[in-house]
């Protein structure tokens, strides 16, 4: 199969997805106006900057998850890869290691997690849900008893260059937002302008057909999970620079579910083969706005979970309505 024919599923999916992206964007704008009118402090500059930083972190993580989900996978270990690798970087910097050495060590840890996930899923053929759930628990446990000194790893004073990534601004725009934009451009170019990106769409659209046409599906799976972990590592660096520390207890939070919510809400279907970086952007904007509004309203965490669950269910129903089953997806068993 030629590159042009391989790319058709991705292009077709993105064209069909446009309506969902517009719907999500309109809901975001409406929700923002509603919160600005009804919630004191929502439309203040300080809150908008705080919200933009949180949306940036969520968006960066969702870019990595989006690559995996387009390939019809799921990575529940992404937050573990983010927290552990970034905590190792912080701890090594605090121990006197040069920043480049610490960054390479953290990158190696994140990459190892992604490669291990991909190898197990692709070659041993254990479902992604169980593989990544188990690997996340395993890596965090091993890190806690071997290399990490505590739950929180701090970045010592004097590392202003590193902290600038999370706390600085470029022409008034917070650096986390700049990092998100740059990574979004890179992921978009990879998915839409390279053979590997077209192969990812073909893999998610129909793995058996992709294999028969000569696409190296198993190495491609390893690539997808490696990208997810490495992007998670970058999100961890930004988060650590924002807070001058990395709290590994974030692994026990609902952040991974927020990431999945962004991906699905934006229109990257869990059955694979459809979606784009624009899906991540609009999904992150809506979820970031919603979470920020609920925090200002001081809603109980259980009520927040109920609302997020309802939003996720609505996103799945919307995706099913906009992309009904046809003969092609029926043959795939979707």
TrEMBL record:
Main location group: membrane
Keyword NADP: no
Membrane topology classification: Multi-pass membrane protein
Subcellular localization, as worded in the UniProt entry: Cell membrane
Coiled coil location: none
CDD domains: TM_PBP1_transp_AraH_like
Pfam family, one: BPD_transp_2
Keyword field contains Manganese: no
Family matches, as InterPro entries: ABC_transp_permease
Transmembrane segments: 21-43, 55-74, 81-103, 109-130, 137-155, 170-191, 222-244, 250-270, 277-297
Keywords: Cell inner membrane, Cell membrane, Membrane, Transmembrane, Transmembrane helix, Transport
PANTHER family: ABC TRANSPORTER PERMEASE PROTEIN YPHD-RELATED (PTHR32196:SF21), ABC TRANSPORTER PERMEASE PROTEIN YPHD-RELATED-RELATED (PTHR32196)
UniProt protein name: ABC transporter permease
């Amino acid at each position: 199969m030629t590159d042009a024919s391989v790319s058709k599923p991705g292009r077709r999916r993105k064209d069909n997805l446009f309506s969902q992206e517009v719907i999500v964007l309109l809901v975001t704008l409406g929700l923002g106006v509603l919160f600005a009118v009804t919630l004191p402090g929502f439309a203040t500059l300080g809150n908008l900057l705080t919200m933009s930083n949180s949306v940036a972190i969520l968006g960066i993580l969702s870019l990595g998850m989006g690559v995996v989900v387009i390939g019809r996978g799921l990575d529940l270990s992404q937050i573990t890869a983010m927290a552990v690798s970034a905590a190792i970087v912080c701890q090594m910097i605090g121990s006197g290691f040069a920043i480049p050495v610490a960054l390479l060590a953290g990158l190696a840890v994140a990459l190892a997690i992604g490669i291990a996930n991909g190898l197990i899923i692709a070659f041993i053929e254990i479902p992604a849900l169980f593989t990544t759930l188990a690997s996340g628990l395993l890596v965090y446990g091993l890190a806690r008893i071997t290399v990490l000194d505590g739950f929180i790893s701090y970045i010592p004073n004097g590392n202003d260059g590193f902290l600038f990534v999370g706390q600085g601004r470029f022409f008034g725009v917070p650096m986390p937002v700049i990092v998100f934009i740059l990574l979004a451009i890179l992921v978009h170019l990879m998915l839409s302008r390279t053979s590997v990106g077209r192969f990812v769409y073909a893999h998610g659209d129909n793995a058996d057909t992709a294999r028969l046409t000569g696409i190296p599906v198993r190495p491609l799976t390893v690539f997808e999970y490696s990208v997810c972990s490495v992007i998670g590592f970058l999100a961890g660096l930004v988060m650590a620079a924002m807070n001058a520390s990395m709290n590994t207890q974030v692994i026990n939070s609902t952040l991974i579910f927020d990431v999945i919510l962004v991906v699905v809400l934006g229109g990257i279907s869990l059955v694979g083969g459809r979606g784009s970086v624009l899906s991540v952007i609009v999904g992150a904007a809506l979820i970031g706005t919603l979470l920020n509004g609920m925090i200002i309203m001081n809603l109980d965490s259980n009520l927040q979970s109920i609302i997020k669950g309802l939003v996720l269910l609505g996103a799945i129903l919307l995706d099913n309505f906009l992309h009904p089953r046809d003969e092609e997806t029926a043959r795939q068993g979707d």
